[in-house]
Every structure is written in C-alpha cells, then in structure tokens.
Amino acid sequence: MVTPFLPLQIEEGLTLLLEVLQNSALQKITKVWYLLRAHVLQLVAIYLSLPHARLSLELRQQIFVRGELPGDV
C-alpha cells in the first residue's frame, strides 16, 4: 500500500526540484545537466498531475514561475 504524501512533503519536494532546475553550477556539465533536467521535469509533471486538494494553486503557480530558465523557448 502506498502512503500518500503530506502537503508539507509535497511542498518541500517541489521546492527542491525547482532549485535543481535553477542551479547554474549543474548547468555547466552539459550531458549530466540535460539528463538531470529531463528527470526533474518528469517529476514536476507528476506533481502537476496531483489533484488540486494535494497541490495548491500557489504551488502550481510556483512551478510555472520558478520553473522557467534562461534560454527556455
């Protein structure tokens, strides 16, 4: 049986994922960066698929605001 995540765990996990996306030191290692970024974006998509009762509107907006990176098209 899978234990559901608590709202605080969801918020903490999302914050960490967005920090990884914005970490400029990681962006310098091209191949590793793109693989890591792809994995993080997959996880962010899972967060976005959570019901609104689990992922607040504020956190959803944070994904869109903080998830944008320089050079993204």
Draw up the topology in text.
Blueprint: H1 7-21, H2 24-27, H3 30-48, H4 57-66
What is shown here, in short?
This protein is mainly alpha-helical and 73 residues long. The protein has four helices and no strands. The protein is 66% helix and 0% strand.
List keywords for this structure.
mainly alpha; disordered C terminus; 4 helices; single chain; 73 residues; 66% helix
How does this structure look, described?
By secondary structure, the chain is mainly α. Helix 1 runs antiparallel to helix 3. The N and C termini lie far apart (40 Å). The chain contains four helices and no strands. It has one domain. The C terminus is likely disordered. It is 66% helix and 0% strand.
Structural class: mainly alpha
Number of helices: 4
How many domains in all? 1
The helical percent reads 55-70%
Contiguous runs where pLDDT drops below 50 for at least 5 residues:
69-73
Outline type = elongated
The N- and C-terminal alpha carbons lie at a distance of 40 Å
Strand content: under 5%
Biggest β-sheet description: none
Order of helices and strands: HHHH
- Provide mean pLDDT, rounded: 76
Radius of gyration: 13 Å
The count of strands amounts to: 0
